[in-house]
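Title: Comparing notes on inverse folding

I've been comparing how different people in this forum approach sequence design from structure. To keep things fair, I'm posting one structure and asking everyone to reply with a full sequence. Here's the target:
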């Protein structure tokens, strides 16, 4: 149910906006990688503007995801340590000698 809601409410309007953006920005744009000689054809890309926009969006998502992953590294490390501690406690409990058995308890009388 939640997946269907996300599809209809978020992704469909986002797809419509991105398609409209791509159609409206079809004109070729020159992007140069050499700031000192902007006319250098070896370091100039001429692509439609929407490609540059989508590339910027994708690069931003990747860089943001990597920054979040690095920032949360200490929490992953702590979770791994706690998992190892829990595993060692489980092994200690399983390897502990069984409690000595005494005489059986009497049956309750009604």
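Reply #1:
Here's my take.
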């Amino acid at each position: 149910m939640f997946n269907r809601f996300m599809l209809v409410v978020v992704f469909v309007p986002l797809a419509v906006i991105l398609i409209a953006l791509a159609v409206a920005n079809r004109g070729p744009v020159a992007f140069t990688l050499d700031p000192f000689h902007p006319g250098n054809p070896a370091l100039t890309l001429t692509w439609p503007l929407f490609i540059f926009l989508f590339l910027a969006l994708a690069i931003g998502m990747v860089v943001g995801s990597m920054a979040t992953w690095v920032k949360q590294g200490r929490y992953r490390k702590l979770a791994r340590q706690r998992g190892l501690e829990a595993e060692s406690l489980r092994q200690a409990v399983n390897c502990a000698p069984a409690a000595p058995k005494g005489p059986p308890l009497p049956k309750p009388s009604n």
